[in-house]
Fold these 3 entries.
Entry 1:
Amino acid sequence: MSRTIILIGFIALSLLANITLAQISDDNTSQEKLQELCSRYKFLWSDADPSVFYYCFTNKAAVQLKCRAGYYMCKREGEAFHPCDCKFDGSLDEEEDSSRASGEFPSEGCEKGDPFLKYNAKHRFGGVESSADTVGACQLECLQEEDCIGVDWDAKNKQCFVLPKTAERYALSEKEGVSHYMRTFCTASDTVTPKSLQDPDTLQSLGGGGNQFSNDYPSNDYNNQNVNDPRFGKQAISFTTASTPAAAASATCTTATVPDSGCPFAIQKYAGMAHPFGVNITSATENQDENACKTWCISRPYCQGVDWDSSLSTCYYFQEIQPALLVTSTNVNHYRRTVCGRPLQCWSQSGSATIQTNVAVTSIDTPQVQCNGVCFLRQTVSATNPTVERGCLAVATGGSSPALGCSIDTTNLLTATCYCDTDRCNGLSLSAMSSQILYLPLDGDLTDHSGFNRFAVPSNGYNQPTFSCLDRAQNCSALFTGGECIEVRQMTQTVWGPVDASGNVTPQLSLAVTFKRLPDGSTVEEGIFGNSNTATVAPSWAFIGRTNENIIRAGIDSTTAPTGLNDFMRGVAAANAWHSAVLTYDGRDLLALDLPLTRFYIDAVRQSGNEQADMGEVQIRAQPVTVGCVQGLNFTGFIDEVRIFNSVLQTNDIEAINIMRDANFN
C-alpha cells in the first residue's frame, strides 16, 4: 500500500552512511522492480516528478515521500547529496497548501511502514525543546537527526521536544495533552511495499561511485534459528527477523551506563534473579557486556526484559515475562522494562500555620511540583511558631510508599504527617485529611485512597461503570448510564461521626462528590451519592438530581427532629458541566441553644435551605454507601472524587476541593 508524507523541509538523511542513489525515468514502477532496486539503492525518484521519491528501509521495503513545495530530488556533481536539496526556479506550479505542511507524519509504526509509532497521552523524560511549531515540523526535525529516537508534541501549547538517544533510559510516562512519537526502524518483513506499479523504463545510477547499499540495522547472527537457553536446559523461544523489528545500529554502540533503578528510568534490576525461556542475543559482535544487554532491550519496544549471565557472558531477551517464573540465580541479573505512571502534581509550600492561606490551599497559583512518589502535608504544633509544609516524598521504584492517611511522628509528638497519592490531594487542611474516612478517586478502579481500604464493588443487579480519562474532574472519572452503580459495603451500619473511648458520638459529617450530569431527557430524579441501594429504604443522607436536570437536592436525616432529605431542594448545577458538591453537618446542640448547622455548597458557593432543621446523630442505615444510584434512582453522567469526612469541613477546605479540578490547570 502506498503512503505519502508531505514534508515541510528536506530530510537530512545524508547523515546515514553509504548512501547510494538511483534515478528512474518513469514514476510507475512495478512492485518486483521496486524491491529489486531497494536491494541496491537508498533513494529512488523519477524525472517525471522529482519531488516524489522512495526511501528504502531495507532491501525489500520502501516508503513513498514527497519534498516540500518548491523543492525536488537531484544530484549535483561533486557535491554531497542531500534529499530534496534542489529548488525550482519559480516555474513550479506550487499547489501545496501550507496547512498540509503542518500535518502529522503517518504514525502507525512498522505494520504500515510508517516512520513513527504514536502513543497518545504519553511522554518521555529527557527531551530537548525545539522551535518547531507544528507536529510535522517536530517530526521532521527528528528525522534530520541521526541520534533522535522520537519526539513529544504538546498540541495545546504547540511545543516540540526532540528526544536524543540518551532519553532511551527513561520509560514512557502518562501526560495528558501530549503525544509521543517513537521513531521506527523497520525491517523488510515489517514494512509494506507499494502496490499496483508498472514496469520501469531504464535505470541510471547517480553518484554511486561503486558504493554498495549498506543496511542501517545491526547484523543479527542470532536470528532465524532456535536458541537453547543452557541455564534451564530447555529450548528457548525461537524468533526471526520477520517477527522482530530491528533497531538502529547505534543502539548497541553506547558507552554510557544504563540506569536500572526503575521509574522514571526504562528498566529495573532484579539482582540474582533469572527468568526461563530466554533468547540468546549475544553474538561475535553484539551484547558482550551487561550494559550492552540492557541497551539492546530499551532500544526495542518489543523487548520486555533481559537476563545477563555473567558466568557465560551471555544476554537473553524476553518478549513476555511471567514474574511467577523468576528464580534465584547466583550469576544472573534480571532486568525488566518498567511502565511508569504519570507523575503526581503536589502542592509545594511551607509557612506559618497561623496564616489561613497556608492551612488549606485555596489559590490555583500556589506552587506545584511533579512527584514520583506521594504528596504530603506536615504540620507541627507549637505555641510560638506552628508550621505547615506541603510537597512530594519521592519513592524509588520497588521501594515502599508510606501508608496513606495521617499519623503522629513517633520522634516528635507535636508533628503530624499525612500522605496521599492523587493530584493536589495535599491541599486540604490537617483537620480534613486526618478525618477523611473514604476517598474514591475513580481513576480507573474502585479502590479507596483514604488509607482505610474501604473499596467499592458493583451493586447487585448493576454493572461496574466504565472509566474515562478524557471527561473528568481529576485524572479520570466513572461514567454511569443508568445501569451502573457501586457500593461500599464496609460502610453499612456506619456511625456517622467520631466516637470517643466511652462510645460517645460527636455528630459531625461532611460529604463531597464531583459530578457532571448528562442531559438524557429523564422524567425521574437521579441518585448521585447516598447510603441506600434499596428502593424501599430511604437513605439518611443523599445527593439527588431533580427532574429539572440543572437542579440537585441534598439533605441529612437525623435522630432528633428529623426532617427527611429535603433540607436543600434547589441547588443550582447546570447539566453537561462539572460541579463539586459538599454537604456538611454539625448536629451538636451548642450551649443548649438548639444551634445545629447543616450547609450545602455547589462549586464552593453556599446554597440556601434549611440549615438548622436537623439535630443530633445522623440516622444509621443497614445499607451501604452508594455511588451512581440512591434508593433505586439511577444516575446518567460522570462522577469523580467521592469523599466522606468525620468532621465539619470549613470553607477553606471546600474551596480547596473545588480548585483541585484539572480544568483549572490546563
Entry 2:
Amino acid sequence: MRIKNKTMGMRIIHTQITPNIRVSTAAIYYEQTYYVRPYWRFETWCFSKDDRQRSFQVIHGTDSNKFSWYDLRTSIKVHQYIAKNLKKKFAKA
C-alpha cells in the first residue's frame, strides 16, 4: 500500500544574488509520510545555473509536528548568512 505525501509549503524569504543564483528559504509541512508522524521542515536552497557555484540545500528544524518560531528565526539567520557570503563572493569588482 502506498501512502501519498500531502505537503503544504510557504516561502519565508528569497534573495537574488545574481541573475543565475538565488537563495530561497521555505517552511514545509509534511502531513503524511511512510513511517513518521506529520512534521514541519525548514529548508534553505541555493539554486544556481552558474558554473562557479553549485546548487545545495540546507535542512533544519525537522523534528517538530508544531510550527516552531525558534526554527523560523534560525532558518532566516541561515538564509541571511548564506546570502551575505554569496553576495561577497560574487560582488562586482
Entry 3:
Amino acid sequence: MNALQIRLLQERTDLQTKCDQLVAFLDEEEKLPTIIPLQKDLLGTQASAMYTYLHILTIRINLLNATDTSEETEESQPEQETK
C-alpha cells in the first residue's frame, strides 16, 4: 500500500465520521427548531454532497487497489518467450 492509498483511506475515514455527525445533528429534533428551514436545507444538501464524495473516494480507492493487485499478479508471473 502506497502513501496515496493510506492518505485516501484516512480521508475516507474522516469523511465518514463527519457525514455521520452531520446526519446525527440533522436527526436531533431538539436542535433543529433553533435553525431556520433554509439552514436545514443547506445542511441536508451539504450532507448529500459529502456522501457523494465519499462514494467517489471509495471507488477511487478500490480502483487503486485493483491496479496494485493486477501489477503484483503481472510481476509474479514468469515472462513467456515469444517464438
